[in-house]
Design brief:
paralog of FGE (formylglycine-generating enzyme), about 270 residues, four-stranded mixed beta sheet, three-stranded antiparallel beta sheet, single chain, alpha+beta, elongated
């Protein structure tokens, strides 16, 4: 008896079943491959949204004036620097944001704190310079240069000691004995550019190598620091530092492989026209 059009016979059902089995096995093999290679997590765990602040092109005074009694030798001479427009992270990178990078297999896990819900909006700490850079690259960004960091920190104020002016207390920043540890990244008011925690909470990695005499020969336009070195520049002060470390011009250096519970970071990115 001939098979009627539109009806399925045993042969057709058998073929379809074989096709379904082969397809299922093929799909399962793809997922196994992606899982073993680490690519599956990179597909599942995508970066969380970051907020950016546009910093306009222009120049600013970088470093400290001779009248600043708290200034160190590596902050001299004060010099004018021009920077192209760029974007700066509005907030420090948080535990919640960094945890996604760990789950994606891009970043190393620095601390159990990144999975603590009570610390989700605190800045991630104990990250090396390399892991900070890896996170920013994963987000299509980069670490800010030291000059970009200082211009953003000054918030458009020319010559002020701190990101908001010349006075400081626990209502303005997390430093000294104010909190005794990290605080949520939006705990204090932003500076004139709308950027938070440019003084206190945690020190921030920058892209530059450190050189104590770099300012003597720094290029006037878009400086990126020395070509090489042993230490990377840290900026911004932290929850355990004194007031002099909160100054916008203050510089610190650290081995790029050395993490600590007072070191974090934020990202920056270029504006392509």
């Amino acid at each position: 008896m001939e098979e009627q059009p539109g009806k399925s016979g045993p042969a057709n059902w058998s073929s379809r079943l074989k096709w379904l089995i082969l397809s299922t096995v093929g799909i399962a093999s793809i997922f196994v491959f992606l899982g073993l290679s680490g690519r599956l997590n990179r597909i599942i765990y995508r970066p969380l949204r970051m907020e950016w602040v546009d910093i306009p092109a222009g120049d600013f005074q970088m470093g400290s004036p001779k009248s600043d009694s708290d200034a160190h030798l590596d902050e001299f001479p004060r010099h004018r620097v021009y920077l192209d427009a760029y974007r700066m992270g509005r907030y420090l990178v948080t535990n919640q944001q960094y945890a996604r990078c760990v789950r994606a297999g891009i970043c190393e896990n620095p601390s159990p704190l990144i999975e603590n819900p009570a610390k989700a909006d605190h800045p991630v700490v104990n990250v090396t310079w390399g892991n900070a850079r890896a996170f920013c690259n994963w987000n299509g960004a980069r670490l800010p240069t030291e000059a970009e960091w200082e211009k953003a920190a000054r918030g458009g104020l020319e010559g002020a000691l701190y990101p908001w002016g010349d006075e400081i207390d626990c209502n303005l920043a997390n430093y000294g004995d104010c909190v005794g540890g990290t605080s949520p990244v939006d705990s204090h008011a932003p500076n004139g550019f709308g950027i938070y925690d440019m003084a206190g909470n945690v020190w921030e990695w920058t892209a530059d190598w450190w050189d104590g005499s770099y300012y003597r020969n720094s290029p006037e336009d878009n400086p990126t620091g020395p070509a090489d070195g042993e230490y990377r520049v840290l900026r911004g002060g932290s929850w355990g530092e004194e007031t002099s470390s909160m100054r916008a011009a203050h510089r610190l250096f650290n081995l790029p492989s050395y993490p600590h519970d007072f070191i974090g970071f934020r990202c920056a990115c270029s504006i392509v026209h």
